[in-house]
Design brief:
The chain is an alpha+beta fold. Helices cover 18% and strands 36% of the residues.
Length: 194
């Protein structure tokens, strides 16, 4: 196990970040909610309400959400890294604030990571080094046309879309995971590669 960074943002998606019908769907990060803690399980994530004690909000990728986006069980949790956001900001501009792509757990790290580096999974550790929960990293979060158009601030034409999708792929847009067990992740926790 090798520590690679610190959890600096936790968030849930209260609803879908894509609106409308194909092929004119648009991306809207408004349903994102920053939370102080996240309970992770094989079914997905619950976010601690930032306003009401002892209240948990169900992420749209949790299997218990009424409009779940995780019917197949492979999109329950997502992780991202600040170094990936720095690369996206260099490519698209400052519009891409950390967290805007919708990952549940974002860690501050000093370099980019690939799927191959994370394929063995990651562990979230408390400040004392106690393991809180493990995540099995299943796949990269492949980019989509609505997010790419939002990042560019316009509707993307097919000839322009390809180069931006290639840039955003291979984990730049984050990674889909499933919880191996149940645990609560807090800001300041460490993330380690298994």
């Amino acid at each position: 196990m090798r520590t690679i960074g610190t959890v600096t943002r936790l968030q849930i998606q209260r609803g879908s970040l894509k609106r409308g019908e194909k092929p004119t769907r648009v991306y809207d990060p408004a349903p994102l909610l920053s939370v102080p803690a996240l309970t992770v399980s094989p079914d997905g994530a619950l976010g601690a309400s930032p306003h009401e004690a002892d209240t948990w909000i169900v992420d749209v990728h949790h299997r218990a959400h009424p409009q779940t986006k995780n019917e197949d069980g492979v999109h329950g949790i997502s992780i991202g890294f600040t170094s990936h956001y720095m690369a996206m900001q260099e490519h698209f501009g400052k519009r891409l604030a950390v967290g805007c792509a919708g990952e549940n757990i974002i860690a501050s790290v000093d370099r980019r990571f690939t799927y191959d580096e994370l394929a063995g999974g990651v562990a979230i550790l408390s400040a004392e080094g106690t393991e809180r929960v493990r995540l099995k990293v299943l796949q990269v979060a492949h980019p989509c046309r609505p997010f790419t158009g939002w990042a560019l601030g316009k509707q993307v034409e097919p000839e322009e879309l390809k180069k931006h999708l290639q840039f955003l792929d291979n984990g730049t847009r984050g990674f889909y995971c499933v919880g191996e067990g149940t645990g609560t992740v807090s800001l300041g926790d460490s993330i380690a590669i298994l």
